[in-house]
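User: I'm new to structure prediction. If I give you an amino acid sequence, what do you actually give back? Let's try with this one:
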Amino acid sequence: MLSINLKTAKTAILAPLFILSIIAFNCKQPPVVKHDGVKDLISFKPIEGISYSEIARRTEDGLSFNNAGYQLEPQWKMKFVSDDSVSIYSPTKKQFINFPLTCGYDSIFNTARTWLKVKVMTKDSLITEVLSAEADSVDTHGTRVYMTFYADNYVKNVLHGDLSKCKSPSLKDTAYIKWLSAAANKDPDKAFAARQPVQIKSKTRLVSIEKRVTEPTLLNNFDTSSDYMAPSFYIIINKAHTDFHYSFSVNVDEQGQMHYVKPLIPTTSEYYIDHSKAVMDSYLKQYLNLKPGTTLGIVHTSEIAIHVTGRRGA
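Assistant: Good question. You get back a string of structure tokens that encode the predicted 3D arrangement of the chain. For your 314 residues, that looks like this:
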């Protein structure tokens, strides 16, 4: 339903451009009229009952990706139903859920555990800026991450249901990912998360593989981005030469080759590092086939976590 990972999204350091670039899409747009009043108490009375769908979520320079590989995805569908309630669609439950709505000054409001600031509000479109919050404090300066919504009626009657150009990654996104990929493939230390993560298959029945999958819940704000930002694989090797368990990260390059990065437990033990490297170089490289990760169809080096257990007697 809702996935705004601010901590990850803010890792990008990107050159600011004019704010209207966030809505410079290759599709016809509704007229934009700024919300009246900057410091007034926000009210959604003028748009109550109108269903909106998010068609873009981007930083102010027009990108939907940052340098860590995190993608801002348009996900929300919502309707303001009263002064204190907003209905938001949950794709996991496949239904709309009513959330409390708290309206504040300076066009700020809170719903679904998220603080937002209205930048544009019309019966055809809505643009909000995501705000960061810590405990009881809200940073009203904003995160420079913007959510753009179109009214469902506008999509149906003006765009005739065609949102493909609006919701697709832009040419600017593609150019940025190509640049990041070239750097990562040249220097593994510049690896970034692959939107379609590394895939691992076993060559033998002696090895079983399980990939961690995050369940979207209210506790994690329905955010499952860790599945591609930090892919984790749990591997069991039966009939190993000895019992062992190691956790470490590797970079998987564009050829599908593993390169040891570091242990995933707090240790400075040379024994642990040397033996976990040996497990990678012997068992894993011998028994596994790896398909490298991709973003926008571009193959690039990315990092994954491996938790491998050897069972001698199994």
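You can read the tokens as a compact description of the fold. Here is one thing that stands out. The helical segments are 6-9, 152-157, 164-167, 171-186, 226-229, 270-287.
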